[in-house]
Write a structure and sequence with these properties.
Structural class: alpha+beta
Order of helices and strands: EEEHHHHHEEHEEEEHHEEE
Radius of gyration: 43 Å
Helix content: 25-40%
Largest sheet: 4 strands, antiparallel
Number of helices: 8
Length: 306
């Protein structure tokens, strides 16, 4: 190796004995100044800067090592460990130990899939996973006695109206019809997913199972106004899913018939202007003709009436 020292910079040249591969490093270094401001002589600079000289030498050796590694990777030569001493891995590779040097990771072949297919379930008569199964769907109709109970017309006295004018059948009436048609214990709601709680509502998917077979799947939802009301909203979500599942059985299908809705609103619903007894605000409400205004509202005159 030949080392040339100048006043402003140092060149380091190292040539391999076994090949023509060589590495050159160039490092700028300003020599120290005397108190008088003059530059020291070349011999003085060489004696007072032993540490930069060793650092430049190591840089040249590192560059030479990197060149040899690249040359070995490009050709079918022997492994690096056969011609490179072990101390180059432990001392010259950026100060890392051989155990800390990153190794080449093997790439997993995913062309055959992720191997995450659903499990094959035993859908016999005793074991059915209702959270994902459609066992018995449309396999056979119900008996004529059960069908007559499910499809019977809804008595007008059972239908209620919300303050905004939407008519509905209370959820307890759906349960009574199912119990009358199939008997208590012959039907049930099976959740088909986790309960999802948003900032204002609770929702969950349920499956209606009757006599050991799936009948319908629907997602229920229910609003809530405070975190304390989430449990009650979860129960309301279940009842809402039951109502939607019963549509497939034909229960209370009149409630979605526009002709029935208009007729019912004309015969059994009235519009009432009410006033809030605390805030004194007025608004229009819908209610059954046989109903009465209750607290905190009281009946008031219509808007614009004197």
């Amino acid at each position: 190796m030949a080392t040339l020292i100048f006043q402003r910079a140092t060149w380091c040249l190292q040539i391999s004995r076994t090949s023509k591969t060589f590495a050159v490093s160039f490092t700028t270094a300003l020599p120290r100044r005397h108190k008088s401001g003059s530059l020291p002589s070349r011999s003085r600079a060489f004696q007072e800067a032993p540490t930069p000289r060793v650092s430049r030498h190591n840089q040249a050796r590192s560059a030479f090592t990197s060149t040899k590694v690249h040359q070995a990777q490009q050709s079918s030569a022997a492994p690096v460990s056969s011609w490179l001493p072990e101390e180059y891995f432990t001392q010259q590779a950026n100060g890392l130990r051989s155990s800390e040097i990153p190794q080449t990771a093997t790439t997993q072949d995913l062309s055959g899939g992720l191997d995450d297919q659903p499990l094959v379930l035993d859908e016999g008569t005793t074991k059915v996973d209702w959270s994902r199964s459609f066992h018995g769907l449309s396999s056979q109709p119900f008996s004529k006695e059960a069908a007559d109970i499910l499809l019977q017309p809804i008595p007008p006295d059972d239908v209620e109206v919300k303050p905004d004018g939407i008519i509905y059948l209370p959820e307890i009436k759906y349960r009574r019809l199912l119990n009358k048609a199939f008997g208590p214990g012959a039907w049930g709601l099976a959740p088909r997913g986790e309960t999802i709680v948003t900032a204002k509502a609770v929702t969950r998917e349920y499956a209606l199972v009757v006599l050991g077979r799936l009948v319908s799947v629907a997602r229920g939802e229910q609003d809530y106004f405070s975190p304390e009301g989430i449990p009650t909203a979860a129960e309301g979500c279940k009842s809402n899913a039951l109502m939607r599942c019963c549509k497939d059985l034909g229960v209370a299908s009149e409630l979605w018939d526009p002709v029935f809705i208009r007729k019912f609103m004309t015969q059994h619903v009235k519009e009432v202007f009410v006033e809030h007894q605390v805030t004194k605000k007025r608004k229009k409400l819908y209610m059954r003709k046989d109903g009465k205004v209750t607290y905190p509202y009281k009946e008031a005159k219509s808007f614009g009436a004197s």
